[in-house]
Each structure stands twice: as structure tokens, then as C-alpha cells.
Amino acid sequence: MPDTALHAALVYHSRRFSVIPFYHRTKKPAVGKGNIYQYRRGIASVAQVETWFATGEWNVGLVTGAVSRLLVADIDLRNGGDHSIRGLPWPPTPTVDSHDGIKALFRHDGGLPTRKDALPGVDLLSEKSQFLVPPSIHPQGTPYAWHDMLDLTDLDLSPSPPWILDLIHTPSSTANPPAPHKNQDTEDGRAPVLVDTCTTPNYLTPQEVRVLFASPEANQAVAKFLGLPALGDSFLCFWHPERKRSMSLYADPHTGAWKVHDHHGRGEHEHYGLPDIFASHMLRREVRLVGKPSLTAWWLRALLASKYLEPAEVPMKVLPLDARPSIRTVYDGFILLLQAKWRYDPGKPTQFTVRFAMAWCGISSSETVQKAVWWLVWYGYIRQVKREKGSWTYLPGEE
């Protein structure tokens, strides 16, 4: 901790932030009673920062306001801060995850007062305030961390949005939240508002989904889409060139599911379900699906592709015409996932982990997927709902 805190403090100091120490696992400044005021007027020297953090364990804090040209939106998720800012312009900017919520850092020349409870669950920190940054530890033991793809090393501080400045200048802002600003994309036709959700007829029950794995009609539709021959016929191997046919299609006598037998005899890889073959076909490489959620998702996707099932209606915003291809690919993949899963679980948020999205969307770079997902989140095309089993769940971008 000492070396980490010292290194982080020096990095923040190099960015011309006013850095001060806090007592370990507390929100109490450790500069001595009455001494914090000098660090609201000027930045400590490098020697002073090194003296503070050279020994012992400390939390690292930054002073907001003119001294650091820093304004912070402190969003308390426990008290509805995320709901208070929904619909307001929120540019990508370095953001800290804390035990209670998030802290978004914006650039401002200072001179503004700090406004507590500017909106329910939202504090706006400027003059006469300070806050903790990574690698500090919350009193409850949770480490502060930079939000994925929103680290100080990822992007520069965004200027403070006008609605934040309006709130600071309006004492009664808590009672009268600002109206959402117009979306300029909507005005030039690039990003229409969310369309209404239509009701998809004949939703499937979980039992009916399980039955589809053994349905001769469903299996035949997918086999035809994949260009497979009739049951019992042999064909050339998918995985490498050959002259003799070494694969055949059969119905599993135990489950009824149609499978492909690889006669090369490669141990556990001798048999492939049609979801495996479909995923391999889409990704142009050999795929073995493991785990019920992934297997079911790919099977439903195969049934949609083969026209055996109609996709569920999913509300969505249209991406700007100049959106990056990687963003478009990830967004299309997310919508496709909901079109499949909402056939039996309509309206429920879904996990969309980086590892799954890489395979589902056919993208080899985890960084590309991460950047695309967070772009979609910050610009309101998809939204985080809650964490389940360590991963975020998502829905389309507006309620």
C-alpha cells in the first residue's frame, strides 16, 4: 500500500491536482486541523507529497475547485442518484467506482460552490471540498477503482455539462430537476428515440425451450440452414480438407437432439451438437459450447437464423451513421441476444460479459468489446441494471 499510494499521489500531482493524504480506510484528511485550507489555495510541493506518503498506510484524496480545476459529480446509487441523472447529457469522463456509487470528474476553472443534494443522491463537489481516489480503501473495506475504460489514462476530463452548472447556480434545484436536454442526434435524424416494445406472440416457456433441443422439426430447420445432409448421411469434415467423408448426422437416442459424429475419433470432440456446429459456422472456427446459458443462447440464435422462430421485439435506438464498425457489431450482437432470450424471458435484463460478447459478436479483442460496451452505455444505447454473479446485466438504453 505505501508504494502504491505514493506512486498514485505523484501521478495525480503531475496532472496538477491538489493531492492530500487521508487516514487509512477513512474519509478524514490527515493534513492537520486547519491546514487543509492552504491546499485549497495552492498545490503541495513534490517533496511534501513524498513526505506524506513515503511511510505508513494512507488513503489518497484530491481537493476540488479552482486549485485543481476540478468539479466532481458524486452519484450515490443507494439513494437513487442514477435515477436522478437519467436522461441528462453525460459525456464520457474519468470516473471512480466507490463503495456507494460513482464519482465523475469534470474540468472547470473553479469559483463555484459545492452543492450537496443538488438532486436526490447527487452531490456536486467544487470549492471547499475533497474526495478519495484510487487506490484508497473505503471504511467498509471496498477499494476505490477507476471505472472500466474511464480511467485518467484512457481519456481527458470532459468540460462540466451545462446542466451541472445550472444546478450549482440554482439553490432550489433539488425540488426542480432540470429537464433533459434535446438530443442533437435526434434533430438531424441520426438517433431516433426508442421505439415502443411490441408483444411477440407465442412466448415460449422454459420447458418448451428444452423441448426444442429434441424437436425433429427444429433440428431439421437448423440442419438445412447449415447445409447438412439427411440423417444418417456422411459428409466431408468441417475442420480440415480431405477427400473421404468422415462426418455424419444422427439423432441422439437418449436426448433426441441431432448431432454430428466426427469419425476421426478425437476423444471428447467426437460428437457435436447443432448449436456447436452453428456457432462454428458463424465464427469460422471450431467451437464447443459449454454451460447451459451459452448453449441455449446459441441454439435460439440458430433457430432465428433458420427462420424456425421469429425474433422477439426489442426496443432500440438507431446508431449514428458515423458509429464505428466495432460499436455497431457489438450493438447488433446485444440486440440479437435479446431477440433470442426474450422469446422465453421477455423484458428481462441479460448478462453480456466481455468473453461471451467476443464469441457472440465474432471479435477477437477484449479491449475492442470493452470500449464498445462502455460507449454504448455512456451514450444511452444500452444501460446497466444490476450485478448478478459478479457480472453486470443490461437492457436497451431507456425505460
Description:
Helix 9 (274-283) crosses helix 10 and helix 10 packs across helix 11 (325-341). The strands form four sheets. Strands 3, 4, 5, 6, 7, 9 and 10 form a seven-stranded mixed β-sheet that branches. A four-stranded antiparallel β-sheet has the order 11-12-13-14. A three-stranded antiparallel β-sheet has the order 1-2-8, covered by helices on one side. The longest helix has 17 residues, at 325-341. It is of the alpha+beta class and 399 residues long. It has helices spanning 2-14, 38-41, 46-53, 81-84, 162-169, 184-187, 206-214, 216-225, 274-283, 292-305, 325-341, 354-361, 366-378; strands at 18-23, 58-63, 70-76, 95-97, 101-107, 115-119, 122-125, 130-133, 145-146, 158-159, 234-235, 247-251, 258-262, 271-273, 350-351, 382-388, 391-396.
Work out the radius of gyration: 27 Å
As a percent range, the share of strand residues is: 15-25%
Order of helix and strand elements from N to C terminus: HEHHEEHEEEEEEEHHHHEEEEHHHEHHEE
> Helix tally?
13
Q: Helix coverage percent of residues?
A: 25-40%
Q: What is the CA–CA distance across the termini?
A: 42 Å
Residue stretches low in confidence (pLDDT < 50, at least 5 long) are: 180-201
Q: Major sheet: size, sense and barrel closure?
A: 7 strands, mixed
How many structural units, i.e. domains? 3
> On the 0-100 scale, what is the average pLDDT?
84
In total, how many beta strands?
A: 17
- C-alpha geometry: elongated
